[in-house]
Amino acid sequence: QVQLVESGGGLVQAGGSLRLPCAFSGRTFGNYAMGWFRQAPGKEREFAATINWSGISTSYADSVKGRFTISRDNAKNTVYLQMNSPKPEESAIYYCAARRTGAPTYDFWGQGTQVTVSS
Fold this sequence. Notes:
mainly beta, seven-stranded mixed sheet
């Protein structure tokens, strides 16, 4: 069973930066694409970024493109979300998720880490 543990959340000022790691265990990390999602209070969970198994291919929501960067270190079984210039409206619980390469959905989710962006 895949286990995902996010960390690195906290309070950050608008315009600052924050990096969220997500540690993967239980299976072979290189067999999974990874994604970051977020959910603000009263809103649905939304996609932020995804990265393929090798790290070569990434994709972003338009709202974060150019400010957030997803990356992975397959030697450390960790995926990262670098958040630059976050906005107050991006305060949310941030979740990482794992999708086996070729599978249509994300099957494994972490418990999330709270990010609060102050103005």
